[in-house]
Specification:
The protein is α/β, with parallel strands linked by helices. It has helices at residues 17-26, 62-65, 118-124, 136-152, 154-167, 170-173, 198-209, 223-226, 239-243, 268-273, 291-300, 332-352, 386-396, 426-437; strands spanning 6-7, 52-56, 73-77, 86-89, 105-108, 128-129, 190-194, 213-217, 234-235, 248-251, 279-282, 305-308, 321-323, 373-381, 401-409, 412-420, 442-448, 456-460, 463-465.
Amino acid sequence: MILSTLLHRNPTSLLPPRHLLALRSFADISVEHGRGAWKTYGDITSYQPGKFQIKTFNKISPVGLSRFPSGQYEIKDGESATNAHAILLRSHKLQEDEVNLTVRAIARCGAGTNNVPVARMSELGIPVFNTPGANANAVKELVICGMLLGSRRIVDGINHMYALGERGEQKERVEKDKAMFGGRELKGKTLAVVGLGHIGAATARDAEQLGMHVMGYDPMLSIENALKLPRSIQLTSGMLEAVKNADYISLNIPYIKGEGGTHHVIGEEIVSAMKEGAVVLNFARGELVDSAALKKHLDENGGNRYVSDFPDDLLWNHPSAILLPHLGASTEEAEDAAASMAAETIRDFLETGTIRNSVNFPSTSLPNRPENSIRFTVVTKNVPGMLAHISEAFAGSNLNILQQINQSRGNVAYNVVDVDTSGHGVVDFKDVQEKITMLDGVLSSRIIYGVPGTGYAKNLEGDYFV
């Protein structure tokens, strides 16, 4: 229970002897701050000095978890991880009270982060990571499967054979009834891909290999993904232009709430422009589609289809809809890849301060720290003057900055600073960390020097949490 502290401005001499003894027992002399009044936090039975603790929700792939070296990390499930330094999860809907004060980072094994309170984590100075592209092949293959399901009446045929089998008529009727389930081929048809990220680009490439004409729309197309597109793709300036002549429409965009977002982006205007026989493939998010508008369109256009792996209260039993369980990333390969990517991302952040694949923090990377240096990371509000104040704190302690980087995103700024240790003792670094952490606008800080689980401090509305 003597794992983390809220430090008020009391001298060490005011600490009871039993707390000083506990401090000496559990503190690493290089980072733990031995001043202030202890407040109980955590569970000592869950604490291993010298290790990072990873809290997991859901069943995380063992392949991914194996990326955490056992000598530096311990993995604990849910409530048993009471001193977690990072959280790893899949579909669990994370609540704020499940995020311990000790948590430095959260990673979701998947692309979407709707189950994580990202905005609140930004306010608390906690980066949230995802794993873009890890499940791209699995989802792409399901999209192609969806095109076949929407073209060949395969599900109807399976159900029909099941009914014939129950009556013992399958051999007698199998040839006679096949005409009931005629379809069309993909070759020569037009596919509109809305959203050309990892999944969209992969879908476009494979569709071209199947002999399809590919249209694409993505107002935020990155250079990286543009280079992955097939040469024959025809890019459009608007979604309506992409879908109006398409036989198949694949949605591969994130769900974004609010004005200017993607809620019900497939609404009356889009569905009314679709050609007869068009198949909508939604393996992105259910909320992208206005179910009422699509149902009306399917009622009036019996040849059109909707295929998705999201539930829908209006379309669940519609004869022109095929709704699957949420299977997009449900392959062993995708789960292994997503968990491995999430684990590596967490390791990079905890061990070096590097940020990549974050949905709320800026991408930030500094070369390996030089010899005879330690690394500070500082999370601040994105307000003018913060970098100057941080630099002044180092200068005021006669600490020489060897290299640094400052990046910002939205309301958050992130700083990584390597300082020279020559001629300085442990107390100097402890003191400057407290000065920096307690600056107005600073959310948290870390000292990274090679000992797992140590060196973290937060400014909790004027209280110094270590």
